[in-house]
Amino acid sequence: MYSSFEQELTKIKEEGRYRPLTVWDSAPGTWMTLNGRKILQMSSNNYLGLTGHPEMKEAARQALERYGAGSGSVRTITGTLDIHDQLEEELAKFKGTPATLVFQSGFTANLGILGSILSDQDLVISDELNHASIIDGIRLTKAKRSIYAHKDLNQLEAILQTSGSYRRKVVVTDGVFSMDGDIAPLPGIVGLAEKYGAIVYVDDAHASGVLGRNGKGSTDHFSLHGRVHIQVGTLSKAVGAVGGYMAGEQVLKDYLIHKARPFLFSTSQPPSVAAACLAAIRILQRSEDLIERLWANATYFRMSLKQMGFDTGSSETPIIPVIIGDPKRTMQFSDRMLQEGIFAQGIVYPTVPMDKGRVRFIVTALHTMEDLQFALDRLQKAGRDFGLI
Ligand SMILES: *Cc1c(COP(=O)(O)O)cnc(C)c1O
């Protein structure tokens, strides 16, 4: 019964892609313990260090006491508690959109939204580097699909120009791309979408809490308020808990409540999680201190790497890849980092092209100057040993 599974695993092992899970024995943070050893964490999406924020922990504790461990149902039956409603209201105010709808995760938000707005009468146009949850969301539908080269507005326009008549044309892009840390050319995308009558859909998973005023996302970053139809955000990365959401018009919210299958058929966020998310949105709204520190750290780290001679690709956010190329050498470099006491994930083919293997560093607001210097010193030494610089 299991031999076919074993065969596939053997193939993964032969390709050097087999990875046992790394089990951490401490809370998320900048220094974490792995088998009793202190390791500098540089691969977490906990951009602002909010996972351990005292106000979020307290909000979660209070909600746990008041409501219990779970919501008991999907949102459309008995699983919408006042705390879920309150989260959506404050989130909409924060985002500056008429409405938001919260899902269990960013992944289910993309599946639910794309899965219900696209049919065989529609066209979806997607950046080639979009996230797996976008790809899977599109796969759930019978929509005609076109993929454009990464951030290539000329190709996007050519597709829009030659596309026939559809009920809906939807252009989908990540706001910040997770492998390269570059930002989508949203003003250009919006301009083309307006010219050709298309819906703009931006997935701000890595921009939520990171980009824009108070971390409002890429639409705010580019001052495109009211011109991006569907903004997807995550509550799982910088926001520090778990969840995903759609921010947009009330009509879209009403539509998704009746159509989005993960919303209809999967139990809502535990109330303690919704409460933690609500606390996080309040923290973001109150002050930009953490976000400013995040960007100062990211700029310092990227500039230092560049000065040393590393190739950081097209990074312009706290996601900073060190491009190495060959998959095997990439994984060796990542292993070397771990020996040196730094966790930075190696990312290789097929996630990225064969010659574009990279070790991806993610800088957070809580990294101190000493932390970053610790990493930079070890990177410089390893970079020389590997002939990268
Ligand atoms: C991480 C990520 C998601 C998934 O978000 P979760 O809340 O972790 O499920 C969706 N889209 C993009 C672009 C992401 O990077």
Automatic annotation (TrEMBL):
<comment type="similarity">
    <text>Belongs to the class-II pyridoxal-phosphate-dependent aminotransferase family. BioF subfamily.</text>
</comment>
<dbReference type="GO" id="GO:0008890">
    <property type="term" value="F:glycine C-acetyltransferase activity"/>
</dbReference>
<protein>
    <recommendedName>
        <fullName>8-amino-7-ketopelargonate synthase</fullName>
        <ecNumber>2.3.1.47</ecNumber>
    </recommendedName>
</protein>
<comment type="function">
    <text>Catalyzes the decarboxylative condensation of pimeloyl-[acyl-carrier protein] and L-alanine to produce 8-amino-7-oxononanoate (AON), [acyl-carrier protein], and carbon dioxide.</text>
</comment>
<dbReference type="InterPro" id="IPR015421">
    <property type="entry name" value="PyrdxlP-dep_Trfase_major"/>
</dbReference>
<feature type="domain" description="Aminotransferase class I/classII large">
    <location>
        <begin position="38"/>
        <end position="379"/>
    </location>
</feature>
<keyword id="KW-0012">Acyltransferase</keyword>
<dbReference type="InterPro" id="IPR015422">
    <property type="entry name" value="PyrdxlP-dep_Trfase_small"/>
</dbReference>
<comment type="subunit">
    <text>Homodimer.</text>
</comment>
<dbReference type="InterPro" id="IPR050087">
    <property type="entry name" value="AON_synthase_class-II"/>
</dbReference>
<dbReference type="InterPro" id="IPR004839">
    <property type="entry name" value="Aminotransferase_I/II_large"/>
</dbReference>
<dbReference type="InterPro" id="IPR010962">
    <property type="entry name" value="AONS_Archaea/Firmicutes"/>
</dbReference>
<dbReference type="Pfam" id="PF00155">
    <property type="entry name" value="Aminotran_1_2"/>
</dbReference>
<keyword id="KW-0808">Transferase</keyword>
<keyword id="KW-0093">Biotin biosynthesis</keyword>
<dbReference type="InterPro" id="IPR001917">
    <property type="entry name" value="Aminotrans_II_pyridoxalP_BS"/>
</dbReference>
<comment type="pathway">
    <text>Cofactor biosynthesis; biotin biosynthesis.</text>
</comment>
<dbReference type="InterPro" id="IPR004723">
    <property type="entry name" value="AONS_Archaea/Proteobacteria"/>
</dbReference>
<dbReference type="InterPro" id="IPR015424">
    <property type="entry name" value="PyrdxlP-dep_Trfase"/>
</dbReference>
<keyword id="KW-0663">Pyridoxal phosphate</keyword>
